[in-house]
Design brief:
Blueprint (H helix, E strand, L loop, with lengths): L13 H26 L4 E5 L5 E5 L3 H52 L9 H50 L10 H17 L26
Antiparallel strand pairs: 1-2
Length: 225
């Protein structure tokens, strides 16, 4: 009688599930024993039933096999970790080499922009360098003009604020009226008085000795000697 293929899914019937577990457990333990005897292999088998009951088999010592397994796992993990670190270091070295090459290219481009090391440049390279410099200068000038216009706009806004503040303070604290300036009038009066005094000074010409003048200030006839 040919058996049908068993579908791999959980058996819903509890009795059937328990019967199947017992049969396959015994078969698995038997296969583990046969493997250890026939192939001289170290075999350890641990089984827990659905109810939590433990079934185990070990060809030598279960604890020893488990300890051997743990040590082997640590070694594998250590080797894998070392391999991963080596791969990471290789990637870092490769990226570092690429960055160094890019840095050298940038340094060479910088020197050429400064007019250095251009003796080996071809005509096409020099033309490209000139075009690049022209574009850079145009961008710099445009940015300078933008900054200049922004500063002008800021100064205009500041001027508006100062004018508004001046108008507010002028309305709040008006300036007192200045008294009339009388100093100019006084100076004019003093000047006219000096001119009148100067006009009264005697300007007649007298020829002769001073003794011939009369006491009352009259003028005698001139005496010629």
């Amino acid at each position: 009688m040919v058996r049908g293929k068993t579908e791999m899914k959980r058996i819903e019937n509890a009795t059937s599930r328990q019967v199947t577990f017992s049969k396959r457990r015994n078969g698995l333990l038997k296969k583990a024993f046969e493997l250890s005897v026939l192939c001289d292999a170290e075999v350890a088998l641990i089984i827990f039933s659905p109810r939590g009951k433990l079934y185990e088999f070990a060809s030598s010592s279960l604890c020893g096999t488990i300890a051997r397994y743990r040590n082997h796992t640590k070694e594998i993990q250590g080797n894998e970790k070392d391999e991963a670190e080596e791969e990471e270091m290789e990637i870092i070295k490769h990226e570092t080499a690429n960055l160094m090459k890019q840095l050298e290219v940038l340094e060479a481009s910088k020197r050429r922009l400064l007019g250095e090391d251009i003796g080996s440049c071809s005509f096409e390279e020099l033309q490209q360098l000139e075009n690049q410099l022209d574009r850079s200068v145009a961008k710099i000038r445009a940015q300078k003009n933008r900054v200049f216009m922004q500063q002008i706009q800021q100064l205009k806004e500041k001027e508006k604020l100062l004018m508004a503040e001046h108008a507010r303070l002028s309305g709040k604290y008006p300036l007192p009226a200045l008294p009339p300036d009388t100093s100019s009038q006084q100076n004019e009066d003093a000047a006219s008085e000096d001119n009148s005094q100067v006009s009264e000074v005697e300007t007649d010409l007298f020829i002769g000795l001073p003794e011939t003048r009369t006491k009352n200030g009259s003028k005698p006839f001139p005496v010629f000697r």
